[in-house]
């Protein structure tokens, strides 16, 4: 069977058997227990006004249910969402009945619909808040993972560079250690020219002697991968900017890096905390979605029942029979749910009596 359902109302004096026979090759027909004699009809103007607003409320209720459903499916891909332990389509077609304790029939229709819509809107906002917290921690973990992946041009260097690699330049007023990423095929040229090439000399401001920007023989290979080699070189502080620019011309990339002695342990502790927090928030969000998907779906079904009621009263009018609310005219319709058979959901030949459709 398809997961799409159609709410259908026919005139009270028409035969449900005829409808079932005409649609038997396309869909299975179930009773839709709309409490027609219990809901308050009100005036024609109120019904017409509510009919327009119900379409929007109905659409928003479906959107909220889908958001919670998709989130639940993402968090628990191996478990199908249920309503009170019953598969969703089975509950909708066989178990749905009006919950008078939560949705009192004596309440005016507009007030009833707006109350349901407001509660659904509250669930939507609560979901957004919980998702923001969960995604924030999840994003921090993903960022941490990305730092540990990729080649030497992009990955984090905290776990690669040790204190001894900085060659005692930490805190020095005269020299600084720079980290350069060089392509493997250019590594030999780098080693041969990083300190001796003419472009890596500078002249003192008074036009006096020329000095090398880089301390000779200071290059140290720290790491390599399939594409690149990471070197540390010691550069005069006053020449760092000029050296960086000239290195860029030779396609050597200077990585921005500040050595922090406790950074590795701090990052590891933060990652462990974020992993625990991510699992905690995931569990809370899963439980919330489990509970509130069922609640949202029930509210949506009640809203759809009201929509079938309103549109059917507007289409078929009232019958002079006595209603359960007292003597007087009552609604003149019968309602069912149609569940299309596999591959037949587009064939909506359910007769001219079909009035309200939803999926």
What would you say this structure looks like, in words?
This protein has 359 residues and is of the alpha+beta class. The protein has helices at residues 16-23, 44-75, 88-95, 109-147, 187-193, 240-249, 263-316, and strands at residues 6-11, 27-31, 82-83, 86-87, 175-183, 201-203, 210-212, 220-224, 228-236, 253-255, 318-319, 330-331, 333-340. Strands 8-9-5-10 form a four-stranded antiparallel sheet, with helices on one face. Strands 1-13-2 form a three-stranded antiparallel sheet, sandwiched between helices. A two-stranded antiparallel sheet has the order 3-4. Helix 2 (44-75) runs parallel beside helix 4, helix 2 (44-75) runs antiparallel to helix 7 (263-316) and helix 4 packs antiparallel against helix 7 (263-316). The longest helix has 54 residues, at 263-316.
List keywords for this structure.
three-stranded antiparallel β-sheet; disordered C terminus; 359 residues; alpha+beta
Number of strands: 13
Morphology call: rod-shaped
Mean of pLDDT: 87
Percent of residues in helical segments?
Answer: 40-55%
Biggest beta sheet attributes: 4 strands, antiparallel
| Count of alpha and pi helical runs | 7
Low confidence ranges: 347-359
Structural class call reads: alpha+beta
Instruction: Order the strands across the largest sheet as they lie in space.
Output: 8-9-5-10
Strand content: 15-25%
Computed over alpha carbons, the radius of gyration is 35 Å
Q: From N to C, what is the helix and strand string?
A: EHEHEEHHEHEEEEHEHEEE
Q: Separation of termini?
A: 14 Å
């Amino acid at each position: 069977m398809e997961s799409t359902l159609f709410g259908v109302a026919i005139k009270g004096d028409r035969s449900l058997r005829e409808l079932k026979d005409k649609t038997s090759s396309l869909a299975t027909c179930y009773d839709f227990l709309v409490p027609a004699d219990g809901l308050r009809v009100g005036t024609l103007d109120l019904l017409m006004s509510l009919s327009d607003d119900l379409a929007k409320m109905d659409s928003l209720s479906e959107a909220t249910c889908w958001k919670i459903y998709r989130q639940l499916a993402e968090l628990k891909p191996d478990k199908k969402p249920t309503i009170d332990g019953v598969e969703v389509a089975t509950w909708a077609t066989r178990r749905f009945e009006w919950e008078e304790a939560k949705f009192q029939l004596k309440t005016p229709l507009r007030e009833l619909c707006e109350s349901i819509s407001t509660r659904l809107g509250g669930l939507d906002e609560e979901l957004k808040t919980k998702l923001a917290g969960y995604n924030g921690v999840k994003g921090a973990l993903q960022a941490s993972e990305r730092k540990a992946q990729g080649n030497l041009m992009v990955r984090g260097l905290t776990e690669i560079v040790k204190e001894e690699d900085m060659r005692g330049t930490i805190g020095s007023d005269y020299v600084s250690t720079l980290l350069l990423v060089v392509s493997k095929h250019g590594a030999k040229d780098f080693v041969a020219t990083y300190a001796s090439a003419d472009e890596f000399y500078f002249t003192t401001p008074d036009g006096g002697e020329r000095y090398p920007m880089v301390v000779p023989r200071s290059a140290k290979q720290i790491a390599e991968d399939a594409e690149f080699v990471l070197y540390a070189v010691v550069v005069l502080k006053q020449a760092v900017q000029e050296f960086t620019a000239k290195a860029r011309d030779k396609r050597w990339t200077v990585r921005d890096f500040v050595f922090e002695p406790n950074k590795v342990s701090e990052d590891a502790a933060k990652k462990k905390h974020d992993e625990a927090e991510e699992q905690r928030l995931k569990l809370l969000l899963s439980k919330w979605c489990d509970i509130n998907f069922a609640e949202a779906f029930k509210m949506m079904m009640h809203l759809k029942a009201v929509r079938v009621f309103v549109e059917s009263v507007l289409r078929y009018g009232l019958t002079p029979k006595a209603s359960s609310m007292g003597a007087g005219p009552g609604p003149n319709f019968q309602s069912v749910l149609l569940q299309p058979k596999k591959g037949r959901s587009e064939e909506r030949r359910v007769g001219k009596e079909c009035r309200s459709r939803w999926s």
